Amino acid sequence: MIGFDPRVRRSATSFAGPLVMLALAGCGDKPAAKGAEAPLPAQPTSQIQGPAGSIHIDDGGSGGIPVVFLHSFAGSTAHWSAQLAHLRTSRRAVAVDFRGHGQSAPPANGDYAVESLAQDVAAVVDSLGLTRFILVGHSMGGSAAVAYAAAHPDRVAGLVLVGAPGKVPEAQAKQIMASLDSNYDKVMAAYSEKLLAGAQPAVRTRLVGEMGGVPKEKSLTIIHALFAFDPLPGLKSYTGPKLIVSTDSGNDPNDLQNAMPEVPHKAITGTSHWPQLDKPDEFNGLLDEFLATIH
């Protein structure tokens, strides 16, 4: 998701870092698929049975080390359309709809914990027979990517975190949740506007509709789950290649590039919190540079 602005103490309409990232994965204990000497062939679009119900994926391309894309709060596989088309000329690329997003089933028990999102990732890669792959996670999807990589470092060939939230201090998180409980519509509108600053007009229109379509209780559950997750231990423990990509909307002290300056970092400026939608060519170029280093 995206982090709420630490200046929330001065205004109920302010959030900290990337809501913890509203735009704004324990991890799955399911072992890697056994008995398959090679990954299953790409299935253009299909449904996979996950721990909370059916999971929709967009799968295509062949060759190279596969790349698995994980979207943000209120997002879907469609957020990665430009990246999927770009990469599938030379390698396999898969995008996942998390539980309760896109075309995936919502969890009956309302469980959106980051560790549970990581179980969705585990279900997908195990079902596809992917034993080694690169994870690219945006915002909420970045948190899920860290959780999965920390639990299965041998399977993650590389990790790209785009606008992913750091750890917001507990006292600040409580303040933000209290402001949301008391004035949800106003606070969410203000924070969404911060994230959308710099968006291309068509991107803005699309995202406003997507975020506005998330019911209040579901939104609060996801935000609370993101605040509860601390990505720093997992990101430190994963020693494989990694890259943090930030935007203008996420440069607070708690954001990952500031909390862990030792991790390679690239910034894409002049975009909203969704650089892959606003500047797909620039984003794809950064992604290509990173992928070229992994063998």
Low-confidence stretches: 1-37
**CATH architecture, please?**
3-Layer(aba) Sandwich
Q: What is the CATH H-level superfamily?
A: Alpha/Beta hydrolase fold, catalytic domain
At the first level of CATH, what is the class? Alpha Beta
Q: Please bin the fraction of helical residues.
A: 25-40%
* Average pLDDT for all residues: 89
Rounded radius of gyration (Å): 17 Å
Instruction: Describe the global form.
Output: globular
**N-C termini distance:** 30 Å
Largest sheet: 8 strands, mixed
Under CATH, the topology is which? Rossmann fold
Tell me what portion of residues adopts beta-strand conformation.
5-15%
Number of E strands: 8
| Sheet with most strands: strand arrangement | 1-2-4-3-5-6-7-8
Order of helices and strands: EEEHEHEHEHHHHHEHEHH
- Overall tally of domains: 1
Category by helix and strand content: alpha/beta
Number of helices: 11
Task: Please give the structural blueprint.
Layout: E1 45-50, E2 53-60, E3 67-70, H1 81-87, E4 93-96, H2 114-128, E5 133-138, H3 140-151, E6 156-162, H4 170-182, H5 184-196, H6 201-212, H7 216-228, H8 231-237, E7 242-246, H9 256-259, E8 265-267, H10 275-278, H11 280-291
Parallel strand pairs: 3-4, 3-5, 5-6, 6-7, 7-8
Antiparallel strand pairs: 1-2, 2-4
Could you please describe the fold and organization of this structure?
This protein has helices at residues 81-87, 114-128, 140-151, 170-182, 184-196, 201-212, 216-228, 231-237, 256-259, 275-278, 280-291; strands at 45-50, 53-60, 67-70, 93-96, 133-138, 156-162, 242-246, 265-267. It starts with 44 loop residues before the first strand and ends with a helix. It has one domain: Rossmann fold. Residues 1-37 have low confidence and may be disordered. Helix 2 packs across helix 3 (140-151) and helix 4 packs antiparallel against helix 7. The protein has an eight-stranded mixed beta sheet with strand order 1-2-4-3-5-6-7-8, with helices on both faces. The relative contact order is 0.19. The chain is α/β, with parallel strands linked by helices and 295 residues long. It has eleven helices and eight strands. The radius of gyration is 17 Å and the shape is globular.
